[in-house]
């Protein structure tokens, strides 16, 4: 098996909604497993929380996410952002439009000084996304 590195997001109670949204953005197959399914909580209000979720997209992206149990502190924000980059203008622009539509744009997707198109947004779940579309070769 090849090793791979992928983002793993944590929310308090928004994992199901967030991962459904990301599936709408990127497509792919989403799996959701609850704490209740695996008998991993003693609290009735946590039975339907997502213990683990995974989205595998047609582009080969893998995004994982979980709801943090109530008794565990949830780090707000943090020094993380997710970067999408490549040269497929239509694909990356489509991701940008969906991620930023219900979020906040920090840097509009425009031509950057290094010749690529670059934008930064924070989606409605508080996750920062950086999108870089490679410029055309001279």
Structure description:
This protein has about 140 residues and is an alpha/beta fold. The chain is built from two helices and eight strands; from the N terminus they run βαββββαβββ. The chain has two domains: about 10-65, 2,3-Dihydroxybiphenyl 1,2-Dioxygenase, domain 1; about 80-135, Signal recognition particle alu RNA binding heterodimer, srp9/1, CATH 3.30.720.110. Strands 1-4-3-2 form a four-stranded mixed beta sheet, covered by helices on one side. A four-stranded mixed beta sheet has the order 5-8-7-6, covered by helices on one side. β7 (about 115-120) and β8 (about 130-135) form a beta hairpin. α1 (about 15-25) runs antiparallel to α2. The chain is elongated. This is PhnB protein. It comes from Labedella gwakjiensis.
- Shape label: elongated
Number of alpha- plus pi-helical segments: 2
Structural class: alpha/beta
The helical percent reads 10-25%
CATH class of the largest domain: Alpha Beta
The CATH architecture of the largest domain can be named as: Roll
Show unreliable segments. none
One letter per element, helices H and strands E, the order comes to: EHEEEEHEEE
Q: In angstroms, what separates the terminal alpha carbons?
A: 38 Å
Strand order of the largest sheet: 1-4-3-2
Strand content: 25-35%
Write down the CATH topology of the largest domain.
Answer: 2,3-Dihydroxybiphenyl 1,2-Dioxygenase, domain 1
CATH superfamily of the largest domain: 2,3-Dihydroxybiphenyl 1,2-Dioxygenase, domain 1
Largest sheet: 4 strands, mixed
- Average pLDDT figure: 91
Number of domains: 2
Total number of beta strands? 8
CA-atom Rg in angstroms: 17 Å
Organism: Labedella gwakjiensis
Pfam families: Glyoxalase
Protein name: PhnB protein
